[in-house]
Amino acid sequence: FDDRDGWIWMDGVFVPWRDAKTHVLTHALHYGSSVFEGERMYAGEIFKLTPHSERLKRSAELLDFEIPYSVAEIDAACKETCAKMGLDDCYVRPVAYRGPEAVSVSAIHNKTHLAIAVWDWPSYFDPETKAKGIRLEWAKWRRPDPATAPSAAKAAGLYMICTMSKTAAEKRGFSDAMMLDWRGYVAEATGANVFFVQDGVLHTPPVDAILDGITRQTIIEMAKAKGIEVIVRHIRPEELSGFTECFLTGTAAEVTPVSEIGEYRFKPGALSLGLMEDYGRLVRRL
Ligand code: PMP
Question: What the protein does (predicted)?
């Protein structure tokens, strides 16, 4: 991925893609002191850009570091990077990290850096797979208690369990893994939130152990505007037998129907497919 043409925004300047490097003694590499965002530009506009930049700042604050750029400056830098790359439809990845100024558990002597890379990323799952629904297994790892880790942050350290869970699932032929939280409630997939359908009503977990997805918030608003009731509540795994539809939401996943989680089966239905189409129109402003 590092050997390609292009530009990456690093601490305020554009650096050729191949030269956009940090030292091996970067604090973030050793101690996980990094937060990031995942955004998408559709037809020339980054969907919910400011909420993403705000979440990036909040994630850093949850890890006790401050990004030395304002939300408006981060917004502008994301747009400039897309323009510099000549892309109208792309994935946008800002990452803020503590640098190589010192190697110590304490970060008192480290600076915070910000980099923004953008690239072509058409769809996480192809349309055919999406229409059928993807297959998930249960993850071995659980989302931590907010008293154990800053679970509300989009922090690289929290993705350790996501990477292990998703890699294990893919090795066994599944598309993703569903994680429980530390109490045993259904939490989220490794890079997306989850919704279930029962009798025309949507059910989704509260954000006390998961990332409060911007797509999740959008879907809740869209569903309510369509007159669909949304219940935000803790869901026990055994309750999955009572749901008929299930879908994931996320910037990369968009709205992706699910056909299987472990022993439970679902069928993409009118509600999931309707929201999937509505979301596709909303992000493209159609
Ligand atoms: N949960 C996790 C663990 C994620 O990585 C993501 C993707 N950022 C989401 C949920 C969905 O968040 P969003 O809708 O803001 O992309």
Answer: Acts on leucine, isoleucine and valine.
